[in-house]
Amino acid sequence: MYQAYGYTAASHLDVVLEKLQDFLRSKNTQQKSSGGLLSIFKDSGPKEVAAKHSIILAFGYVTAYAPPGLITSRIEVHIINPIKPFFPDAKSLVLKECIIKAVDLIGKALHPNRLHKEYTLTHRDELLKYVLSYMCPDPKSPYSALIPCL
User: What pTM did the predictor assign?
Assistant: First the structure.
């Protein structure tokens, strides 16, 4: 499902971004009656967990397949900001893998060879910090000495 959003973004970027943001807004509206920000995704059932994984990957694939001339004007506000709230609370391995894959797709989409110009992502250091923290084992874990940092 998430790759389909990317394929569609190749020719309809703004429509796809609006649909993804509408999905996030509808989830935020539903959960306002039940508690804090993005609480619908916390400790929720399998459908909500799968939706969270899909939405993160969808933003990654949208970035990967978006026209290079348009993506730089939309990356900060329309792609990074909506998915950034998911990063600090990532505890499951599957969610961490989805975030790493999305950041990888975003990085490849913003590579100078694809854009044909230099572009500096303002959130680069923050995204890199999260990716590195997901890839290294928890230092408090008894297995951390056995599992090297990737």
Answer: 0.82
How many angstroms separate the CA atoms of 96 and 52, rounded? 11
Tell me the DSSP string of 15-28.
HHHHHHHHHHHHHH
> Closest by alpha carbon to 93, among 144, 137, 45, 57?
137
Query: Does residue 55 contact residue 38 with C-beta atoms inside 8 Å?
Result: no
- As a whole number of Å, the end-to-end CA separation of the chain is 29
CA dist 59 and 106 (Å) reads 9
d(CA 38, CA 128): 23
> 121: Cβ–Cβ under 8 A, 6 or more apart, which residues?
75, 76, 80, 106, 110, 127
Which tokens belong to 61?
Answer: 């694939």
Q: Residue 140 pLDDT more than 70?
A: no
**SS3 of the chain: helix, strand, coil, percent, to 5:** 70, 0, 30
DSSP letters, 68-87, are: HHHHHHHIIIIIIHHHGGGS
Q: Are 13 and 62 in contact (CB under 8 A)?
A: yes
pLDDT tens per residue, range 80-90? 999 999 999 88
